[in-house]
Structures
1.
Amino acid sequence: MAFFSDLGEHVAVLRGLLGADIAADALPGIMAALDDDAIVEIISGASNLIRAAEKVRIVASGVAAARSTREHGHGGLAQKRGHNSLAALIQDLTGATRADAVKHVRLGESLLAGMGAALDDGAGESTDAAPAGSLDAEVAAEPWHAPLGRALLAGTISSAQHDVILRGLGEPPTVDDPDASRHIADVWSLAAEQLAAEAGERTVEELAKAARTVRDRLDPEGAGRRFDERFERRSFRLGTDSDGIRRASIAFDDVGGAWMDAILDSALRPRRGGPRFIDPAEKERAEQLVADPRTNEQLAYDLVLDVLRAGALAEEKTVFGTRQAGIRVLITADDREAHADGRPAIGLLEESQTSVPASLAAQHACDTGGVECTIDRDGNPLRLGREHRLYTAKQRLTLALRDGGCRWRGCDRPPSYCEAHHIDHFVADHGRTDVDRGILLCRYHHMQLHHGGWRITRDGLGDFVLHPPPGRGDPLTLAPRLTLRYAWAGIDPPPRRFLPAA
Ligand SMILES: [Zn+2]
Ligand SMILES: [Zn+2]
């Protein structure tokens, strides 16, 4: 349908419901008298109008962006109007937030690039137009996000949906080989098209999450890199504000964040509309929590402090109520095999469905064991395998006795901070859940091992040997704690001064 008749139709719907040429200040009175159906129709009609107008504004923003680039200097469209960037001009014109203005520019640029529009510099306003013929067929090829622009113009996705798909999929990885590069762009384009097709029945949040997951699946290597970057940025800072209140600022890595979510969730679930409890004791506990006069923030604070105080020795039930906090990682057999072969692969955190490197799934399986489930392509579970490879509490005691803590060279973390690493590869044969094949590593070193491509081997009951990734030095023998060696074996031979006096 032609653009303006489309727009006219949306206006006509509203006019039909509200009456022709009413005064704006009469709107509340008129609508208060309408029935529910009419109100819903008005909301939907007004939204259609907004979407149509927004399209116009986005396209105009894209054109303005091409005329406001850095190369235009003071002669740029935004710059001539006294703004150092187009986003600043748009913010000024619309009264929108900075983030919304930036989003507008981003969408406009994407849309124009996608439409292959001739981005000439505006008749007469500037002289540095691109020389004719500079766009050869290769460069003029449609960018991967073109389907999103088309869907936006066709009205099948909203600008918010366009934006989360665009940002969620992100720029495809760059490669030198032009064939490979074209192939990657095709795959990204297909993903954009499929996500856009889902938009009708998905929330913006769900699309955003799905787009990120699709990207990580298409580019597991990049997923690993992004995971690393977030891990590197982890931080905990404690300070005192001007009122003398101690304040903390924490940046979580993916796993730490998932742990925090799990801990808070398991304790605050009844407050957050979690499942209804059937067990009377649980039900009572849930009711008490709902009636608790503390705010959610205060409850969360008290809980975090309880956990810190109780530390590793806490009885989970006293801290977490009924469900013990923890995280579960999902990984497909294909990804697991790819990971075992050293190829990039990813898994998913069960609760939030964010993707994580396969190495995390391997690390997690070491420590908590796992269960195999056969699932058909539609996600129907067919068969649940048995749980496997979890060191029992007794076995962990034995490991603690033998290792005394993290066995990584130079690390002094005690056993209570350690996870049990299974040195046999995380593959379908499960390896033996045998104390001889396990070794204690602190969380940090366990992650470093799985994620950084390190390996620990052992020949029979010989030494544990740590193999760095290729090119990172020679294998190291991992000695148990020195104090333990003395405790078990004494000093051999005993030095002179320990000999009983003759
Ligand atoms: Zn491990
Ligand atoms: Zn360690």
2.
Amino acid sequence: MADQAEHWNRIFTGKADKELGWYEGDVRQTLACIDRIPCERSQTVFLPGAGTSLLVDELLARGTRLVLNDISSEALARLQERIGARGDRIEWLQQDISQPLPIGATRADIWIDRAVLHFLLTEQEIDGYFGNVRTVVKRGGHVLLAEFSETGALRCAGLDVHRYSVDEMRARLGRGFELLWAEDYVFINPAGAPRPYVYALFQRN
Ligand SMILES: C[S@@+](CC[C@H](N)C(=O)[O-])C[C@H]1O[C@@H](n2cnc3c(N)ncnc32)[C@H](O)[C@@H]1O
């Protein structure tokens, strides 16, 4: 964890938000996905790798309670500074999401992962991640995964990535989750390069 955390801290220390390769000035793609979920506004949303995403501001404006995790203390500090007094409905966590969450971790109605899972490469890390999904997401709750697709880039942020199909996401989540919707989406990064993602929304039975 220490190496990974340092890697991400260096990135967040060295670049402004708009210089980050995954920076989205407009988070409508994710908002449109979660608008497919009925009554999401008063619910608790868990972000396993929040980064400094503007999705946080949008969800706060909707009245959502948030659990914001990231492996990078720098990302969380920058986000905390930006959110300021608007953070009273936020629980902050700093941990490697491939490792078990603390006993008694807050349970959530919606898990939203954009560009976090695909950095986990070993079976152990990936299993750990999906174990946390099962710990956190309530029955009837939802999981939105947005990862590099099978036609996507091989690397991001100086790291290799594991690219996903919807079938692999479904298999990794297991029988307790039903696929509701999926879409290929090409994100154009701040340097103007296309980055193909797959978005998939699941519901826990
Ligand atoms: C590509 S960025 C995406 C950030 C945010 N989700 C967004 O869409 O802007 C990946 C984020 O995941 C975090 N991260 C990477 N590996 C992680 C891990 N094992 N556990 C928790 N967070 C991790 C990084 O620090 C970074 O904030």
3.
Amino acid sequence: MQEHDATHIDTRCIHGGQEKCEVTGAVMPPIYTSSTYAQESPGVHKGYEYSRSHNVTRYSFERAIANLEGSGLSREQDTTNGGFAFSSGLAATATCLEMIDSGDCILAMDDMYGGTYRLLSRVRERSQGLRPIYIDMTNLDSVASTVKEHKPRMIWVESPTNPTLKVSDLEGIARIAEENGAIAVADNTFASPMLQRPLEAGMHVVMHSATKYLGGHSDVVGGALVTRDEEIAQRLRFLQNSIGSVMGPFDAYLCLRGVKTLAVRIQRHCENAMAIARMLENHPKVERVVYPGLESHPQHEVAARQMRLEGTPAFGGMITIFLKGGIDESRRFLETVSIFALAESLGGVESLIEHPAIMTHASVPAEARAKLGISDSLVRLSVGIERVDDLMADLERALDAV
Ligand SMILES: Cc1ncc(COP(=O)(O)O)c(C=O)c1O
């Protein structure tokens, strides 16, 4: 089964880009651990030379994610249909950044994963001479005017953002990029291809931390890039092999296994998160709830248009709350939850909770955090797929202790 354009995305999670093993009929690809492949004569081989460049298990995951993101590239245009897997999300980002040159300007979202910010501001500014400009991309006019003025070669948007859940209009940003000859990249980690497919909105490249919803079980670290553009696919193939931060075959197997249940997991994440957001919205100990599904979210309308589960608006499993009080109240709350694990990361079947100012976004300077509203009372929830009543009871109990 190779062509899946006519099938629903739920079915493509399981079959997209996959084929049964020609030798054994194995339904799941074996984990190919071989680092090298025997050649019949120098240069005469079966398309596999060395595992950094060619690995069957990695290819399977790469084709799966390319299919889900709707790359539209055939195997003739690119061996893995424009999908590329890396050893982590940041390795994917780092490789993607190599498409632009020393001294180039990159326009980036002001609020984004702290590690992406750190890579741009503390590594690539120094080593590659990149000139990042951070702006709030929820405002398309400001994107258009900044692009006109600074002529960035790449536009890097995250939507929804980590951790303040800002939602940007991907179609609008892609249009501005296209008109100005910039490569538009979307970090789709928070939404997953179940809810949002940036390539269909006109973005050139999609990036994922596969560690999150794609893997889905908090047992693997990985990253992915997908492009719909044949020329970009050629460049990424060259860079993936030249830089070498590839996903290993064991991890590719876990990611592929995770993707198979993405549809059912995301549906439950969305249902649980919506119910919890509504509950927290009315809680006296909570100052404010940020969830794209709430009417109070500043970009709720964009989110409802852009994030959809089989045509119906759906908003993912991430919620950000501001507690009443400060660091002491946050600490007590985070120490008291018991089903929610106090841990970094997100997107797994189990619910996680964390404090970005101290944990995931400590690498963002305090001044920049303050500007973005990442305060001591901000707590981020990754709502899992447990029974929602148990999750609500856990949060109620912890809020009572605050
Ligand atoms: C939105 C987002 N992008 C990128 C990354 C980086 O991915 P990784 O941790 O797999 O390197 C993360 C990690 O938390 C993230 O949340």
4.
Amino acid sequence: MGLDAAAKKSLLRKIPHGLFICGVAEGDQVNGFTASWVTQGSFEPPLVVVGVRSDSTSNGIIQRTGRFSLNVLSAEQKDLAAVFFKPQQGIGGRFEAAPFQLGELGLPILDDALGAVECELVGQVAHGDHTVFVGEVKSAVLHREGEALELSATGWSYGG
Ligand SMILES: Cc1cc2nc3c(=O)[nH]c(=O)nc-3n(C[C@H](O)[C@H](O)[C@H](O)COP(=O)(O)O)c2cc1C
């Protein structure tokens, strides 16, 4: 029996997601993009999992540098999430809308996000149109407490 594509789409879209800005850096270049396919994968060591489009600029940078950051957006930062999924003039151009500092691992940490973690790549599955990266959390910066932005609150969808 073949896969019921409509059922698969409906069910996979029910997986709850947050919205994050995944940051990468290579040489003196930084880049960032909106990511929703993010989850925790282990307590000890602390692992996070992120699915990243195979043909994206950031995917290649993660492959080459073995690291990425995840910035947690606040519930009020839908506009910022939109900036980070739209095409940009040049690599890193989206950061004109969002001041940032480089963290301990040299990865972009947005000043206005709730906070961010920096991760070292410990595994990956490259199969299909996204690569599943597993990162070990090596640094964490909490700027403030607050509600995080959830995909369900935006009216957007990414999945299915
Ligand atoms: C709501 C939403 C969620 C997204 N989630 C992801 C994601 O989890 N992983 C991913 O690779 N791209 C995701 N994207 C798409 C990227 O943000 C987009 O492809 C971006 O332009 C990639 O940037 P880059 O090519 O500069 O790396 C999402 C887009 C939207 C609108």
